[in-house]
Fold this protein.
Amino acid sequence: MAERVLLISDLHLEEQRPDITAAFKNFLLSNQANCTSLYILGDLFEVWIGDDAQTPLAQEIAISLAEFSKAGSDVFLMHGNRDFLIGESFAQQCDMSLIPDPFELTAGNFRALLLHGDTLCTDDIDYQLFRTMVRNPDWQAEFLAKTVDERIAYAREARRQSQLATGQKTTEIMDVNADAVQKLFTESKHLTLIHGHTHRPAMHVVSSASTNSAAIEHKRIVLGDWDQKLWYVEIQNSEAALRSEPLTN
């Protein structure tokens, strides 16, 4: 099989949106044995409170991903801001590997830095403080030691507060910071970034000056969320393309 890599993010799977679940399962079936790897760049689920609190939906998705993997494609998952508590137990059920954020992708002659995207939203100071707290291993251990009911209650309240805060923030605050993007391009020395999180699908070209003053063109590819459409990046023949399809056919 010629190398063909697919990347998706921000499906936000939940029981209230069976249409997105159906679209994802159809996406897996249509690409089964037809790609070398699938990268999920965070927020596969709307909420995840621990591998020990799985729902029928989570088990359904695990079966579909495991079947997809066994058909010959490697599956990788990066944590998002909704599902950062997905652990090795669930990853094994899905026959997929957890990868860090950021992660360096090499596909043939194509190289890119993958990330969920929330770390680039540095203007949202309140969120960055929250992210630092919940990504702390001590906080996670304490949270996972709570009962499932306690975790559900916490997640609901956190979601309520997040919705209230989001309604008071400008769209600029919740988007990526241009300086943070330039800094990452400079530090990583990658010409391409691929991420999700902002729900603003686009192919951006970012120019910066090199040491000899010649302009260098970088690409920032932003995946869209699965709401009205499904979005994915396809890498083939060392080229990356952002694609979308109707959610339902």
